[in-house]
Amino acid sequence: MATNPYIPATPRAASGLRATALGIALLFATSAQAAGEEPWLDPSRSFEDRAASLVAEMTLEEKVAQMQNAAPAIERLDVPAYDWWNEALHGVARAGQATVFPQAIGLAATFDVPLMGRVATTISDEARAKHHQFIRDGSHGRYEGLTFWSPNINIFRDPRWGRGQETYGEDPYLTARMGVAFVKGLQGDDPVYRKLDATAKHFAVHSGPEADRHHFDARPSRRDLYDTYFPAFEALVKEGDVDAVMGAYNRVYGESASASQYLLQDVLRRDWGFKGYVVSDCWAIVDVWKHHRIVETREEAAALAVKSGTELECGEEYATLPEAVRKGLVSEAEIDASVTRLFAARMRLGMFDPPERVRWARIPYSVNQAPAHDALALEAARDSLVLLKNDGVLPLSRELKRIAVIGPTADDTMALLGNYYGTPAAPVTILQGIRDAAGSVDVTYARGVDLVEGRDDPAATPLIDTAYLRPSADSSERGLHGEYFRNRELTGTPALVRTDARIGFRWDRGSPTDNLLARGEAAPGQDVPDDGFGIRWSGQLLPPVSGRYRLEVAADDGYRLYLDGKRVLERWTQADRLSGDGVDVELEAGRAYDLRLEYYDDQRDAAVRLAWRMPGAKPPFEEAVELARDADAVVFVGGLTGDVEGEEMTVSYPGFAGGDRTDLRLPATQRTLLEALQATGKPVVLVLTGGSAIAVDWADATLPAILMSWYPGQRGGTAVGEVLFGDTNPGGRLPVTFYKADEVMPAFDDYAMEGRTYRYFRGTPLYPFGHGLSYTRFDYRNLRTSAQEVAADGRLRVQVDVANAGQRAGDEVVQLYVRPVRPAPGDSLQELRGFQRIHLAPGEQRTVEFELEPGQALRRYDAARDDYAVAPGAYEVRVGGSSADARARATFKVEATRK
Known about the structure:
By secondary structure, the chain is an alpha+beta fold. The strands form 10 sheets. Strands 12, 13, 14, 16, 18, 19 and 21 form a 7-stranded antiparallel sheet that branches. Strands 9-27-26-23-10-11 form a 6-stranded mixed sheet, with helices on both faces. Strand 18 (558-563) and strand 19 form a beta hairpin.
């Protein structure tokens, strides 16, 4: 039997009785099964049979342990440890270095399904390669497996939701098409072995508020449930064959979404035929008894979740299942069915077969962050950028003498990443991208203001540049001497010794590899743990001028700073976020000062910065305005980052509460600076970063150009620089509606769709769903349909001619919407039912064709049937460049269904 790297080499100690039984069974094994091979290792059998044979050998306690995300090894059965928790929202996340693509909302803005498939395939290549390297290193921890908890296909129904950035926007059809492409790219096309397991989350009615998610009961109308919240999940199950579904924290109609008979059994399995497994959101089962109070005890909560159809728990409540079985709350047979489904999934991933049988195991580690992947990240970033407004100032001319780049997200890598990200090898900030694209144009920079008011922003002070640091008095290098330890006490032999140019690092959960070298990416013996590590930097500080300096250290967690042997700053305690302090010191030019910075990380996220403000430095706001006055044009880069919008945050700021937004406008600090820059009389281009709609009414009325960049990934800065100078033509479109600042939104915790999204919003948006400008112009002509009347179960072909009427090549996203000519009460205003992104040269014309199936495209929930139905009558097809830009229209009729 070939060696399986998943299985430890330690011998299994089996009882004599069991060994005898297995020996007898082996006498009757098929000829394909090697002598001594267990039945669950026999590749000639189905995965389900193999899994059942393995589960039959386990004790109840062993089975239950396998139903928790951090499943332990069962040495007597040669079952290795496995942690089901992995993330891949827009690249392999929290597992060290990986290619970082635009955040999910930015990928949706491409309106490009084939591109999404290529991105997902690239992510799965890197995930497979990294996994097998971890296995070769004998590591089986979190973020090292093959089961990925992505994509997030919840509907971004309200722009205040901090996690909306993780979704594909507000439209069920766009979400379904992008989600299916992502799942297929992750799971691969092998007829036997899955490449990865994708997970559709969070089923099913889940989109904020973050502060209420552990106790909230969502009760949408059945129509909103079926027409808005269900379709993407149904598509991923039926079309994408997604192998896993994650439940949500909140209740739906009184049931916990992670322990819901209605959602998980009646809809998911009975109606949709789902064959995979369900995983709870992390610690959602705790909520069943502790916050939702559906039951009174942990055992009851665990039993209810299993009986409802949640096979795998992220959390620890399932540890009580043996007691639940003994109390008669759940049967061991129900436990067996769950564990069997889980092991069948692992076996389908090839975990119990020789690697030579698994096509995906042959992907070399060298694919990780390959140049082609970086090029794809750049392509995706380019295609995600949405030009919201342009009065002709763009593209910028390279004949300009000086451009001032100003704003809090211009030189911030967090503005590229959003949340759930990996570590990019060489991220290009927007400032750097503009400088790279500017040619001979002089580019100056000032941060100007903090991201939001009231936030002690540690990134506001400039890092000490490498030119003013050296490792030792006799060194010709620049930077500081770094010693990396496997403990927080900074004791023993360092795992890694190197010179670091600047001390400004930030790491998401998982291996901190933009600085440290993690397993699979390090030379032997250089690996540093994910948590509980320490670093000592030492060397000399070389001040360029004499005067009073402000030295600042910020860290998550502890730090100590020494100057000439004297401790000047210290906080040797755990912190829940990046924070720090500063000290004023008198320094003399021409003198070298001994400098030492010590740092430790406790757990989860880690970060450290060593910064200073030099003598005579102007206040940041004043510096920014002065640079604007001296420039020919200004590019203001601002908006949001994942520091203020995201998942259930513990800190809040003006306009933000726990990761959600309470104010859709640009933060007040930025608005004030933007107004001051505009008052200089210089043309100001606004580049927005963020994962949600931002109400920039004043900017739209006043500034000549606005570009939405989202969180554009590792090459986002390059893409922005190219678009600003016209090297590429923007073609992204909005996957969400941008509302005006004074728009009164429905209550955030109201899950009714009326008044929300382009489908039910009856006002005038600032920018409509599907909106996006270009440096060229497109004309639509000759819309035609294949028939004037079609059966509900028939097909209708729709064609339109699209021409590039401008002087530049560019991309157009041709969008098809349908609506009933005589809408019934509760009908949406219109529905996206087709889109194609096409590239046209100047003067080029192309016929774009769509095929509509009324049974899918026109179905609506029918309360009388408690199911979908297609209403007969007249419908209008609208084709154009956005939901508010119908360039061509046609009508057709749907025949009444014959009895």
